[in-house]
Amino acid sequence: MNSNIAIQTVEKTTAEVRGMKVEVKDLSVFYGKFQALAEINVDIREQMITAIIGPSGCGKSTLLRSFNRMNDLTPSAHIQGKITLDSEDIYAPGMDVVDVRRRVGMVFQRPNPFPKSIYDNVAYGPRLYGVRRHSDLDALVEHSLKQAALWEEVKDKLHQSGMSLSGGQQQRLCIARALAVQPEVVLMDEPASALDPISTLRIEELMQELKKDYTIIIVTHNMQQAARVSDYTAMMMIDEQRAGRMIEYDQTNIIFTRPKDKRTEDYVTGRFG
Amino acid sequence: MRKTFEAEIQQLKDELLLMGSMVEQQVLDAVDALKRRDVPASHRIFDSDAKINSKRYGIEEQVMILIATQQPMAHDLRLLASILEVSAELERMGDYAKGIATINIRMGEEPPLKPLIDIPRMAKKGADMLHRSLTAFINEDVNAARAIPPEDDEVDDLYTQVYRELMTFVMKDPKNIDRANYLLWTAHNLERFADRVTNICERTVFIATGEMKEITSSGDGSA
Amino acid sequence: MNQFSVMLAQGHQRRRSSRRTVNAVMLALTGLLTLLALIPLFWIIGYVFYRGGKAINLDFFIHTPTPLGVPGGGVLHAIEGTLIISLISSILAIPPGILAAFYAARHPNTPLGVALRFSTDMLSGVPSIVVGLFVYALIVVPQKHFSALAGGVALAILMLPIITRTTEEMLKLVPGTLREASLGLGAPEWKTSLSVVFPAALDGIITGFLLGIARAAGETAPLLFTALGNERFDLGRMIQSGVQSHQSIFQVIGRILNQPVDSLPLTLYKYAQQPYPERVEQSWAVALVLLILVLLVNIIARLWIELRARRLRG
Predict the structure, then answer these.
(1) Which pLDDT tens digit goes with each residue over B1-44?
(2) For residue range B58-105, what is the model confidence (pLDDT) as tens digits?
(3) Which chains touch A (3 or more CB pairs under 8 A)?
(4) pTM for this structure?
(5) Which residues of chain A from 254 to 273 reach within 8 Å of chain C, CB to CB?
(6) CB distance A4–B212 less than 8 Å?
(7) SS3 of C260, please?
């Protein structure tokens, strides 16, 4: 009798049914002649949290920024391979960058609210897309702030400056701002690394709530956070040519209890380097 | 990297080995006392089982501390979970030996039913299997671990033999039933003792591969 | 305690008393030098207030000059002139200055960006009298008269490098993540610059502007060949006559622009040289007015920044 009582994985049956929201095929990213990422292949499942981990400088942020074409801002950046969002290539010549960025939102490492009122911060995005009516904006702002678990704390001071909030609140404001344009995917680049432990846990709780509606991809150097929060984890490392590669990609439970690659094992057990 | 952690793990392994050798000794002593009808010795064995129990709790506590403070992952996590499991197995194995000592005490002044031959053999085999399985566990030697469970068949065969022999005694004279029972119970304890060694071997494989699979001895002969 | 801590403890002891003396000496020295640096400032302010205060009265501010000997004259014409020229130079200098700064900050390594930076630096080093001469040849000669417009252009050229430089520095101080956040939401570059970067840098930009104005208001040399001076300039009368003869607003403005005007520094220059003691006294009063003006501009600048900062902190 051969009962595989392996760590009964959280292969939620729904996950099998869930489609791939973002697919990365043989992606290589270059800055001029320097190759930052080499032949990355990874499929991001919708309405799940995927974490990207790895040692410093392994290209995690570069990969993340490829998802919303933020790498385009660096003049010398160019890519090979492709990234598809709902099966559409986001780097295709006819593709509207603005639309990609609306559908794929981003939250940054340090909270960076605009020097405007809380209301205007959240309303900035929708206004860009032509939402003008006051009642519409009011509803959108309230909804977004509620989604970011910030509404109760700021509903009476929407016209105060966004910079007057605490660090954790500012980061939630930035999340509300990103959510206001109704994205499909939310990218988070070390969203809690600049925050205290309690704010960090709040953000993690928030992520669990948000994944019901959004596909979330998070870069983090905090392994415990990746373990706590994500459903899938991708492990990256640089090769001898200093290009970032994907070493292993699997369910989070497996990566942290019985990873297949020794390099992953060494990294998660803290014996790397 | 993680020198402190590594050192703590090594210490835990040493403690486990120590606990294992205490259990080995205890089972051999218990059977030996039974053979010699040495009741005071059995009393001593009974009392010293407490030491084995406290070793187990010490190991447990240390594992909990390491889990809380070192955030073990992957292999480290499997190892610590297995140490927890194995220390529990060892404690129960110690209880089997204690049970044999109890039997000896209960038998009291009654003369033995027959000279003990197979039962000491079972004990020796069991102790030897335990010793090797713990060595394999500490060294994470998967091949050695896989080779041990089949030897359980020997113990099972001896048990069957003992059972048959004792049955003939009972059938010859029903008044023998008490003393036969005592001896049967002893053999039963030793058979269970050897079974638990298999669990330890399975854990060794688990640590190395991450897969928990039963290692079956061919033709399960448990009566 | 290891050998090193003993070493340090011993060294520390040795140093103790001499350190105290050195501390005291340096403190005294820096205090003295600070005082020395402040003396000219307070001396000037004090003296100007003293000499100028005697000739200043309400008339000074609301009347044009009266002939010598007649009391109740003022320098309204010069005040109006200064305001008009400052207005013209601001309108001319601010848009190009800010736009150039935006470009140079965003594209510092392109040929145009480098050229902008270089020329801004060069321009700030050009002597103001040379600028005046240049504008004389450019505007005054073809027009065949001196004008407020010419004066405004000259001062605009002087203000431009200050505005460009400060704006550029302030733009660079805006954290890049702010820009990225806006772009990440899907905003185009121009909207990001306008709605996010510019407001974030606004405080500094305003400071730069006020500094530029303060400098321009105090310039005399370039105005010598451009605005020249006009004792009979009277804004009120010009507007009145324009209204009476039903001229359009553009025509009235045109007339004003084409007049030679006086400015406060220019008036000071002229009055101080005249042999009449009343005029000399009045020049001190003009100096006082100028001083007060500059102080006012600085105070307003600082108040503005403080208010904005308060509002931002919530």
Answers:
(1) 788 899 999 999 999 999 999 999 999 999 999 999 999 999 99
(2) 999 999 999 998 889 999 999 999 999 999 999 999 999 999 999 999
(3) B, C
(4) 0.80
(5) none
(6) yes
(7) coil
